[in-house]
């Protein structure tokens, strides 16, 4: 027999079929009847065990034992999915005879986060945890689908580099055949160079940041969904594409991940056709006027400021997304283009999602002489980024791009309280296992 999945039972009513998966739950009744819930990649189905020999064949097995079942599909409106399997015979493929570190067949996993992460290879089997990472896969697919239609080419850039991309203080050094290399903080320089090749590129890949953060919204390794595009007007061109990307991701999830969204009780975000935007100095002035906190001399927004702005955007514009544009040049990397009408501020932006920074992006410099001045003002040498600068000696169009933090997107979408819950095997200052 060919294996039948839980989601396919409706097509086999009255037939004798074979299934295989994990024993998700066992419920024994006083009458001797046993209900076994079998979990496979498509879901969970109920198996009704009445014959004494069938009961005996699974006696002593604990949950997560891997079993193969042959039985008859019966329509049963009260069963999950409307179908169940009767008259089963079992083959045990891999028995489990010891208790799990914590139950994974409950609607909510009651385990301390560190305990869960120590045992993630087991805990991730829980349907609620699977749903998080299925949504993560859907976000990546939606991201790619939108940009493919817009003429972007997917690229894969090196994760070992000879120099720091952003700042030497936040890199992980690596011994590289007697030389020093670094784990890539970003594909920034490479994706800019590729604008000179393909005009429009994107990448979905891990990046590494050595910041000594111990917060619920930072990781030292995360997945960045990057895009870069040439022949733009300014940063607003990038913002328009990013808006389309966010809409496309949400639409893809709504169409293809209904079960996961329902299981996690996800409230889909308010996402108007155009996202509201506020200029950075105006945002600071609004914070001062409405919350009495004077941050007008600060070069960046604090998490609480982002939260207040997110609440304002939702109440005023019915939007869970808000662009903050024009961050001070002193806070942005050397390759950022200034606002020609207000050079202290940049043609850059952050996109806040439910009051938390989700995306950073903007317009880049595109002329070699501008890079020479920018590097000098940042105390950097041309030799340190010589290969990168070559692209600008030989003609680069006005361009810009953005980077979305995948785990942060999932965290804000699903209402998780810690970014580590959105990473399969998170890496932070303390964790290198499993």
TrEMBL record:
Spans annotated as Aspartate: 188-191
Origin: domain of life: Bacteria
Record bears the keyword ATP-binding: yes
Gene name per UniProt: aspS
UniProt-listed GO biological process terms: aspartyl-tRNA aminoacylation
Binding positions (L-aspartate): 166, 209, 360, 364
Species name: Candidatus Cryosericum odellii
Residues annotated as domain Aminoacyl-transfer RNA synthetases class-II family profile: 139-434
Protein name: Aspartate--tRNA ligase
Molecular-function annotations in GO: aspartate-tRNA ligase activity; ATP binding; RNA binding
